[in-house]
């Protein structure tokens, strides 16, 4: 009877250990997704559309004034103020290139952007570089900034498309070149 009880105890212990390990692996895989979603939905301020009453005292004794509020992602170190995006994500063509030499990183970034509704071209590879940079055609700086925020790329790494030399952008309006120093979620 002792053998059966020990055997059952070892099976139960092994099963519990396997379940804990699987839970840890699942949470580890979700760490970037939770951080990205949290950055997208957490703001300290409530935006007010121009022309709407924000309920704040405008200094004239009434509360009928208008104001606008801009929000920035809490993970950025600098703040870039640009007008709101004029194109919906589906109308922005994006190319993601792997310059980090980490297998699958361009695919993960492409998947994140596809999930955001962007028109993403097939990922490619480019010459190795350290920093991740986001290049954009004229007039799409705001859309490039939105993409940089989704991928948690520092806003100071936005560049005009004319500075892109490591690959040909083709039909892409925004090109993300993922460097070695970045861990795309």
Provide an overview of this structure.
Helix content is 33%, strand content 12%. The chain has helices at residues 2-41, 105-115, 141-150, and strands spanning 93-98, 119-120, 124-125, 133-136, 158-160, 174-178. Strands 1, 2, 3, 4, 5 and 6 form a 6-stranded mixed sheet that branches. α2 (105-115) links the parallel β1 and β2 (119-120). The termini are far apart. Mean pLDDT is 73; it is low at 33-77.
Provide a brief overview of the structure.
This protein is of the alpha/beta class. 33% of the residues lie in helices and 12% in strands. Helix 2 (105-115) links the parallel strand 1 and strand 2 (119-120).
Stated plainly, the CATH topology of the largest domain is called Alpha-Beta Plaits
Mean pLDDT: 73
**Helix share of residues?**
25-40%
Apparent shape: elongated
Radius of gyration: 23 Å
Please trace the helix and strand order, writing H or E for each element. HEHEEEHEE
Number of strands: 6
Any guess at the CATH architecture of the largest domain? 2-Layer Sandwich
Low-confidence stretches: 33-77
Number of helices: 3
Strand content: 5-15%
Number of domains: 3
**Separation, N- and C-terminal Cα atoms:** 52 Å
């Amino acid at each position: 009877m002792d053998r059966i009880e020990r055997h059952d105890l070892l099976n139960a212990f092994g099963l519990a250990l396997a379940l804990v390990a699987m839970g840890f692996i699942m949470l580890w895989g979700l760490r970037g997704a939770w951080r990205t979603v949290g950055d997208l939905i957490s703001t300290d301020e409530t935006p007010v559309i121009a022309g709407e009453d924000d309920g704040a005292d405008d200094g004239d004794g009434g509360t009928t004034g208008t104001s606008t509020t801009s929000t920035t992602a809490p993970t950025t170190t600098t703040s870039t103020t640009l007008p709101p995006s004029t194109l919906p994500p589906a109308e922005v063509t994006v190319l993601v290139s792997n310059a980090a030499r980490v297998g699958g990183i361009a695919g993960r970034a492409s998947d994140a952007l596809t999930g955001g509704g962007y028109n993403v071209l097939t990922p490619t590879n480019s010459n190795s570089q350290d920093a991740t940079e986001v290049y954009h055609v004229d007039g799409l700086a705001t859309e490039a900034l939105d993409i940089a925020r989704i991928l948690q790329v520092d806003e100071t790494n936005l560049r005009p498309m004319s500075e892109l030399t490591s690959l040909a952008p083709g039909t892409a309006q925004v090109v993300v070149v993922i460097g070695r120093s970045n861990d795309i979620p």
